[in-house]
Every structure is written in structure tokens, then in C-alpha cells.
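Q: I'm building a small set of examples for a reading group on sequence design. Run inverse folding on the following structure and report the sequence directly after it, with nothing in between.
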């Protein structure tokens, strides 16, 4: 309890109740925490985006299997199913163990993709494709552990942390696209250059996931500001942060006993979902639209243009960069959308992009398609940040953690639905 008392300061309010006050000592390390949140968010999708941006290699390796669509379709059920189970039991789950399992699984899966390629000597075949699909399922399972666990954990801290984490997730797409351009260009004129570039790129992905394991295990939880917010959540009855606090040198056994009844006073998951049903619907609508277009439609249905084999990579890069930019726009408070009705209207209004993409693919040139793809990413990132930074405000630590998990579930339901609907673009084309 001594460490917990140092992390939190108390003073009586007008009713004589104890109020937690933030001390300058306990809030040190905010900038470092934001950087780490960004890096960890990057690691949440770095390996998966690495596989997506290597689709030019996999399309060549497995020309009959619609890899851009199939791998995403394999990924999403495992992500959604695992996250649904974890979100239902979030109040009892050790968040530290959950996040570490996720990042370690990302590293193992990334390494497995390389092993499969080396074992087949880059010749493809059904066996290799099944192995890649298994790795994709493992990525989905890892994503469910990390994305839900980190979002829930950071939701009980300051909004800047969740914004940095989500921006890092978007940055993973922009960074992987940039790296893929470099590796593709570096080996473009060499023998078997497409495979060499993909292997180098996938190796970098595996190394980065290992870095995330080390950062989360040994650095993030020891920052004073992170200790403060986790101690604050523990004082409000959260049990999910106990292992992280212990790793940071704070023991909370007495706090757990004193606040056991307070855990029972928190809103149930059903109550939280009903109070935030509009945010849940917004996230579903945002991601069902985005994933019905990205990446499958962009890789397979936009026709041939002067950019040739680079065209699909340029479109993916345009989406990823604009998504990243969109996640930083709400940092400027004046242009951050806080109205719940406004967010709903914007989420519904984005569906005008479906006919826009359809007619542009048929009659437009590549400049219009790049512009549309950029707008798709910009609105996706902007609205995501507006929702995740606004929704947790006004709730206690345990409720914020639960709400963060629930919103990620709604996001993944939207992604899964979008991935399924993406196949509708193939109707009438001959499968």
C-alpha cells in the first residue's frame, strides 16, 4: 500500500470524501509514454500489414487463391471470436499477460511465415498456402489479445495515450507501405527479386514484434505516469491492472480487498453498451465500409493503369498515409468532432464512397482512384480517434477498460462484415 499511496495523493472534498490529486512527480514521463504507446500501437498491426503489403508477392505465388481476400477472411473470425471471449471476461483477465501473449504470438507468427517460405523455396503450392492461412489466423488471435487489451488499458489513462496508440496502428500501414516500396525497388532488377524483397520485409516485421515484447515487458509499465493511472484504476476497483502494477513495483493487495465491493458497483457490460450504442454502431459502419473496399477491391478490381505492378501498392500506401493523417487531425481541438449526432451522420455519409469507387474503377483514371482511396483512409482515421477519445470520458477505471474492449469488438464486427461484403465485388466476373 505504501507504493500505491505514493502514486496517488488524497485530499477531502466538500463532502468530506477522498479525492485523488495528480502530483507532478506521479505524472512524469508523459511524453515517453506517448512515444511507447505509438510504438506498441505500431506493433499491433505491423506484422499483419506486412503480410498485406506483400500481396504483390503472394498474388504471384498463389495466383488462383485470391490471397488478398482469403487471408483477410481467415484473419477476421479468429480476431473477432477471440476478442469476444476476452471482452466478456475482461474484468477477470490479467491484462499484462494478455498483452504479452499477443505480442509474443505476433513474433512467432511472423517468424513462421518466413519459415514456410524457406521450407517451400518460394515455390508456392497448396501446402504453403495453408501454412500462410494458419499464420494469418494466428495474427488474428494475437490482434484480439493486443488491440482489445491495450485499448482497454489505455482508456483508463489520459486521452493522448489512446490517440497515440491508435495513431501508431495507422502508422504501421504507412511504414510498411514505405518499406515495401524500398524493398521492392532494391531487388526489382535482380533474379527472383520479388521474393527477396518480401523476405527482407517480413524479417523486419518479425524483428519489430520482438522489440514490442521487450518494450511492453520491461519499459512501459515502469513509467511514473503509467503507474499513476493504473494505481488510480486499482483504487476504483479494477483488478486487471494488478499484475502490471506489481511489475512496476507497486503492491495492491490491501487495495484489492478494500475495493472489492466497489468492483461490484461498476456498470455491467450491457449497461455500458446501451449507453454507448451510437458509438458502437458508428464503429461498425466505419469499418464495414472501409473493409468492403480495402484491401481486396484495391488489389483486384481497379483495372490496369500506367503504374503497372506498382498501382496496387500506391493505392494501399495512399490509404495508409491518409489514415495516419486522419488520426492526428483530432489533436487540434477546434476541428475535433465531439457531437455524437455529428459522428453518426459522418459515419453514414461515408457510404457515398461505394458508388464513387464503382464508377471510378469503370470510368475514372488512376488519379481519381488515388484521391478516393486517400479520402477513405482520412475519414476512417479521423472518426476512429473521435470515438475512442470521447467514449471513455466520465466513467471509472474498470468501466473505461470494459468499454474500450466492447468498442473494439464492435470495430472487429464491422471489419469482419466488410471483409465478407468485399467478395460481392466479384459477382458477375467469374470466380
Amino acid at each position: 500500500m505504501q507504493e500505491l499511496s505514493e502514486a496517488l495523493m488524497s485530499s477531502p472534498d466538500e463532502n468530506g470524501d477522498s479525492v485523488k490529486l495528480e502530483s507532478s512527480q506521479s505524472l512524469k514521463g508523459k511524453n515517453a509514454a506517448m512515444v511507447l504507446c505509438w510504438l506498441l500501437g505500431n506493433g499491433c498491426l505491423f506484422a499483419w500489414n506486412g503480410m498485406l503489403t506483400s500481396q504483390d508477392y503472394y498474388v504471384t505465388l498463389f495466383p488462383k487463391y485470391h490471397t488478398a481476400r482469403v487471408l483477410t477472411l481467415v484473419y477476421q473470425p479468429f480476431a473477432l471470436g477471440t476478442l469476444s471471449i476476452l471482452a466478456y471476461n475482461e474484468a477477470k483477465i490479467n491484462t499484462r499477460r494478455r498483452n504479452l501473449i499477443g505480442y509474443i504470438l505476433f513474433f512467432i507468427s511472423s517468424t513462421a511465415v518466413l519459415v514456410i517460405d524457406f521450407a517451400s523455396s518460394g515455390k508456392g503450392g497448396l501446402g504453403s498456402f495453408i501454412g500462410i492461412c494458419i499464420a494469418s489466423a494466428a495474427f488474428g488471435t494475437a490482434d484480439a489479445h493486443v488491440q482489445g487489451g491495450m485499448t482497454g488499458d489505455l482508456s483508463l489513462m489520459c486521452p493522448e495515450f489512446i490517440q497515440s496508440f491508435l495513431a501508431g496502428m495507422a502508422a504501421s500501414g504507412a511504414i510498411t507501405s514505405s518499406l515495401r516500396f524500398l524493398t521492392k525497388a532494391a531487388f526489382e532488377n535482380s533474379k527472383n527479386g520479388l521474393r527477396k524483397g518480401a523476405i527482407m520485409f517480413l524479417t523486419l516485421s518479425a524483428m519489430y514484434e520482438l522489440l514490442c515484447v521487450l518494450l511492453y515487458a520491461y519499459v512501459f509499465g515502469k513509467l511514473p505516469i503509467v503507474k499513476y493511472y493504473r494505481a488510480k484504476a486499482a483504487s476504483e476497483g479494477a483488478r486487471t491492472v494488478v499484475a502490471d502494477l506489481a511489475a512496476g513495483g507497486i503492491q495492491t493487495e490491501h487495495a484489492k480487498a478494500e475495493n472489492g465491493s466497489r468492483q461490484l458497483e461498476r456498470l455491467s457490460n450491457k449497461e455500458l453498451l446501451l449507453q454507448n450504442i451510437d458509438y458502437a454502431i458508428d464503429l461498425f459502419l466505419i469499418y464495414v465500409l472501409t473493409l468492403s473496399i480495402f484491401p481486396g477491391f484495391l488489389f483486384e478490381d481497379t483495372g490496369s493503369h500506367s503504374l503497372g505492378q506498382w498501382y496496387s501498392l500506391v493505392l494501399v500506401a495512399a490509404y495508409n498515409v491518409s489514415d495516419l493523417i486522419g488520426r492526428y487531425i483530432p489533436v487540434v481541438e477546434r476541428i475535433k468532432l465531439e457531437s455524437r449526432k455529428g459522428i453518426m451522420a459522418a459515419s453514414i455519409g461515408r457510404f457515398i464512397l461505394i458508388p464513387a469507387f464503382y464508377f471510378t474503377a469503370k470510368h475514372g483514371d488512376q488519379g481519381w482512384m488515388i484521391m478516393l482511396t486517400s479520402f477513405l483512409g482520412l475519414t476512417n482515421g479521423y472518426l476512429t480517434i473521435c470515438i475512442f477519445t470521447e467514449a471513455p470520458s466520465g466513467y471509472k477505471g474498470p468501466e473505461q477498460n470494459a468499454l474500450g474492449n466492447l468498442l473494439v469488438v464492435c470495430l472487429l464486427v464491422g471489419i469482419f462484415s466488410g471483409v465478407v461484403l468485399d467478395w460481392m465485388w466479384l459477382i458477375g466476373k467469374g470466380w
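The first strand starts at residue 9 and ends at 12.
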